[in-house]
Amino acid sequence: MMRFAPPPTGRSQALLIVALALFALCAAVVFAQVDGERGIAPIAASSDISVTGVEVDVTGEDAQDARAKGWEAAQRLAWERLEGPELSDSQIGAMVSAIVIEQEQLGPRRYIARLGVIFDRQRANAYLGGEEQARRSAPMLLVPVTVSAGTQLVYEMRNPWQRAWAEYQAGSSRIDYVRPSGAGSDSLLITYGQTGRRSRLWWRNVLDQFNASDVLIPIANLDYSYPGGPVTGRFTARHGPDNTYLASFEMTAENPQELPAMLAQAVTRFDAIFARALADGLLQPDPTLNLGTPEIDPALLRLIEVGQAADAR
Description:
This protein is α/β, with parallel strands linked by helices. The chain has two domains: 49-131, no CATH class; 135-312, 3-Layer(aba) Sandwich (Rossmann fold), CATH 3.40.50.10070. The chain is built from nine helices and ten strands. It has helices at 10-34, 63-81, 89-95, 121-128, 160-166, 186-189, 200-209, 259-279, 298-312, and strands at 49-59, 96-106, 110-119, 139-142, 145-148, 151-153, 176-178, 214-224, 231-239, 244-253. The strands form two sheets. Strands 4, 5, 6, 7, 8, 9 and 10 form a seven-stranded mixed β-sheet that branches. The protein has a three-stranded antiparallel β-sheet with strand order 1-3-2, sandwiched between helices. Strand 8 (214-224) and strand 9 (231-239) form a beta hairpin. Helix 1 (10-34) crosses helix 9. The radius of gyration is 25 Å and the shape is globular. Residues 1-5 and 18-35 have low confidence and may be disordered.
């Protein structure tokens, strides 16, 4: 005997309509989060040796002579930072493959600048020995968190801290950074709330999406004194699914225009912190993340599916 469900009552119809409306609203919010202008592709890693933030202040017979002397001084200072042996300026210059202008002021006879110097690794290693060949870390998922004015951002929208990490030349680093672009479903999978999770299953699923073994969390807490005034950055390095503290430091930019340069210097300091932690054995992948081939968390699977659907639109 066939049975038929009774037709829905007015109350049940209303509840059904409300439920469908809420579902549509949630879907719209999720699609809005993955749509729009977001995502900064990281620059391609180079194997060359990069030294950033080299400051020079020199004078010359004219503007061009001052700049030439400034670049020569920057090459010499960068080589000293690498703790290389004493060489002539011409020998050092022969190893330089590029000069990166981070900031410069050019006067009639004076040159003030902050520069980056890139050395050809093959030539430089002939003098530096095997130090630059030290082992690298396991692949580390990078979650750059910005805290400012009571909000926390990772990839929800483009931000200066994300850009600083995307533009960092990590080829010579001992850390194997996995840097998502932040586009599409990245903004759903990697959020500030994720850093507070302790579930190994959830973390393992997220790491698998990016072929990473563990996670690094550089946090930039930015305090704007007043419009156009100094910006204080309080930076904290954390690691792993337990959000383990590694180190912290502070920096100040004189105004918002100086913020990108400050953040670029902060990235370099973070890399040094992570490299030191690696040398001290603190960046070993968490063994509790090794779950074999676990079943993917249904909630995470739904986020991945929604993100993929949005990417395909």
